Amino acid sequence: MEENITIYISESNKGEEQIIINKQYKFNFSHSRKDNSRVYKCTEYKKNNKCKSFIILNNEKEILKYESLHNHPGNEYSVSLSVMKHKIKDEINKHSNPFDIKRKRLYNEISKEMGFIYPCPEYISVKTLILRSINKKLPSNVTTFNEIPNESEYYKTERNEDFMIFKNSDLVIFQSPFQAKLFKKYNNDIFVDGTFYIAPKFSQQVFITRTYVKELNSFYTTSYAILRNKKQKTYKMLFNKLKQNSNNNIITEPKNKLKKNELCRNEVNDDEKIFNYYKGISNLPFINPEYIMDIFSLIKTKSIEKNSCQFLKFLEYFYETYLIGYDMKSWNYYNNIEHITNNASESLNNSLNKLFPMKPNFYELINKLKEQEHLSYYDYQMKIKGIWRMKKKIKTKTDEINILIEKFKNKEAKLIIIKYDRSDLTKLWFECLTNLNNIL
C-alpha cells in the first residue's frame, strides 16, 4: 500500500459518500463487508477505463487496504469540482434561511478556502448546482391565496416577533410590533399606496402604509399587505385590522394619491390647454376643498367647448372615483401640506421594485419585506438615540406649495372681507391651480 495517502470525505452527485485520494482520484461506495468495513471503487470502474482500483475503510475511516491499480491519470480538476460541490451543499444546508444566501459570495468564500489545496473551478461550473441546492431548501411555492399558510417560520421578524397579523381569503397583512407602535404614535398623516410590480402572481397588489416622524425628519413604513382584489370592502377590512392591531382609534384619514389615467393620453399630449387641465386635476389635493367642485365644473365646461372627448371620459372617471367614490378628506392636503404623497410612497415602491427583476414568489417577497422592516427599525433606533444624525431639512417643493397656498389663502380672506361672490373666489383658486402647475 502506498505511503502518505491523503483522504478526503466528499459526496457524489447522488448524495452518496465519496472518497477522494491524494487530491486526484475519486471512489464511490460499492458494498459493505461482514466485518462492517466498506469497499469503495474508482469512479472510472463503470466507464471505458474499467479501472480496478479500490479502497477499504473501517468505521473510523481508516484505510485498511488500498489497491492503486489506476489505468488512467489522476484528474485534479474533476476532484476539485466534486469537493466544491460537496462544500457548497454542506454550507447551504447549514443556513436556516435559504433566501439569505448570496450565491456569488458563497462561491467566493469556498473558493478562497479551497484555493490553497485544490485548483478551483470557475463560478459558471457550479452556478446551477448552487441555485438547485438553494431551491431544494425553499418552502413549496404558494400559487393561490388559499394556499397561504396560517402559520410559518417566515412570519417572524429578525427580532423573532410576530409579523403576520391577519389573513382571510382576500387579504394578508404584515405589521411588526415596531410598525404598529409607529402606526399608533404618528397618525397625523397616514400615507398609502399600492404597487403591482412586486405582487405575487396570484394577487393584484402589495399595499403599503407609511408615516412621517417629524422629529426625525424621516418616513417609516407601518404595514404591508397582499391583496387579492381592489374592492372597497378589502381596503376597509385592511384598515380596521390595522387599527385593531395598534389599539388605535384613528380619526385621520389615510392619504390616497390621485392616480394617473391612460384614458386621455393622446389629447393630453397633443393639446397644451388640455395638458394644463390634466395637471390641474392632479393638483386639486392642494387647494381649498370648498371650491374643488366649482373648479371641476369650470374645467369640464372648457373641455366641452374644445370637444375633448377622451379627456371628458377621464373627467367622468375622476368624478365617479374621487369626488363621489372617496371622501375628499382622504386625498386633500389643504390644511396640512406637510409632504407630497408621491415622494413619500413612490420612493419606497421604486426601491422595492429594484429588489425583484421579476415577480417574486410569496416567501421571497415576505423575506425581503422583513429585511426592509428590520432596516427601518435599526434606522429609527439609531436616530431616536441620537447615534445617527437626522437629515437636514432643505427647501422642497412641499415648501414652495405651502408658500403659494398661504399666499392665496390671504387673497381669499381679503376678497371675502370686501364681499366678492363665489365665482370670483373660484377663479382665484383656479389661478392658484395654474400656478401649481408651474411648480409640480
Topology:
Blueprint: E1 7-11, E2 17-21, E3 25-32, E4 38-42, E5 54-57, E6 63-67, H1 76-94, H2 103-114, H3 127-137, E7 164-167, E8 171-174, H4 177-185, E9 190-195, E10 205-213, E11 218-227, H5 232-245, E12 254-255, H6 265-270, H7 272-282, H8 292-305, H9 309-324, H10 341-355, H11 362-384, H12 397-417, H13 422-439
Parallel strand pairs: 9-12
Antiparallel strand pairs: 1-2, 2-3, 3-4, 4-5, 5-6, 7-8, 8-11, 9-10, 10-11
- Distance from first to last alpha carbon: 84 Å
What general outline do the C-alpha atoms trace? elongated
In terms of per-residue confidence, which ranges show pLDDT below 50 for 5 or more consecutive residues?
A: none
The order of strands across the largest sheet is 1-2-3-4-5-6
Task: Please estimate the helix content.
Answer: 40-55%
Number-wise, the strands total 12
Q: Rg to the nearest angstrom?
A: 33 Å
Helix vs. strand class: alpha+beta
- Sheet having the most strands: 6 strands, antiparallel
Mean pLDDT: 84
Which H/E pattern describes the elements? EEEEEEHHHEEHEEEHEHHHHHHHH
Walkthrough of the structure:
The chain has 440 residues and is an alpha+beta fold. Helix content is 43%, strand content 15%. The protein has 13 helices and twelve strands. The strands form two sheets. A six-stranded antiparallel sheet has the order 1-2-3-4-5-6, covered by helices on one side. A six-stranded mixed sheet has the order 7-8-11-10-9-12, with helices on both faces. Strand 5 (54-57) and strand 6 (63-67) form a beta hairpin. Helix 1 packs parallel to helix 3 and helix 8 packs antiparallel against helix 9 (309-324).
